[in-house]
Fold:
Amino acid sequence: MNIFKNYIKGDKYLWAFIGLLAVFSFLPVYSASSNLVYTVGKGSVVSHMGKHAIFLIVGMLIIVAVQRVNYKYFGGFALIAVIISVGLLAYTLLQGKTIDGANASRWITLPGTSITIQTSTFASMALLIYIARYLTITRNKKISFVSTLLPLFLPMFVIVGLILPANGSTAVILFAMCLVLMFIGGFPIKYLLVIVGVGVLGAGTFIYVALKQPELLPSSRVHTWQSRIENFTNDKGIESYQVHHAKAAINRGGVNGVGPGKSVFKQTLPQSSSDFIFAIIVEEYGIFGAGALIFVYLLILYRITIIATKIHTIFGTLVVCAVGLPVIFQAFINMGVAVNLFPVTGQPLPMISYGGTSMWVTCIAFGIVLSVSRAIMTPEEIKLEERKNTDEVIQDIA
Structure:
């Protein structure tokens, strides 16, 4: 027990909920691994389970490492990460290649390995933390639209713009989270409306050019977005096939589910181990099992809210919102797609879906939230800290 106490710091309840998700993830991934064997064309159920276990172990080590870092340093890290992200996103977008016939302008392959990473996930987190840092620095300053153009709007529109061509859903979600974070940070509403207008105008122009002159934007997936939106309201295309099978799996699960490993639709539902894993969970564990999973995500949201309100610094509050809220937002979008509330977006279920990049970014996010939770002070400790800072100022003046 002492070993765990040395490494598991911060909010114990949040740790418990993260652990629940990690342990539970083995069940649906095990069930969907047979489909992975078929789609990947190699490996076995055991090997894919082993790979998932490695993803989780590495993810937990990431949380342990990140939570030990003073959260105040993450603002500086984000400044560097945003600059690096722009280069990585540009390189990823300009690859112009395919993997197994699919557009690969979302991923890059690490040199000397077969490991692929989705750069947009890292860039999204870096941008949101950067915005939290900027809002903290300008908290007590008079904000003008012109003064925010270079330090705030430019990196936001550059990163969102680089993500948009190959991953529209991630770009839209990131843009929305940027707006939410700026609203929480007290950014003037009139400027937020201007940002929305510029964003809509820019996206509209991009879509128009991609549809009318697709040769100018070879990495664009606008036609895929169009197909998904159209198929959301009719019965055509692969997206409709996915949704029909997901709804059939949910209907088969009913209230109690058919039992662990007894899913039938895991064999016919594309992306049953990632984008549509929630449908397999409902099929096997029923409404009660799915409800329990949703409740765990809500508990995580509750702990994130508690940590954000208890931390005594503005940056602490904003950085928790910047990294914590997107995780919950992504979870409910994934589940909403499975039950046909939203068009297919390609968003995995955090800490549950099979895959390394998304899981590790989620673990970084949880590590940052736990790092902030470690710094929470009691009212008495805050007063003592303020008194100490006042005494230091007086000594400096003297």
User: Anything to note?
Assistant: Strands lie at 98-99, 102-103, 107-109, 116-118. The CA atoms of residues 81 and 265 lie 41 Å apart.
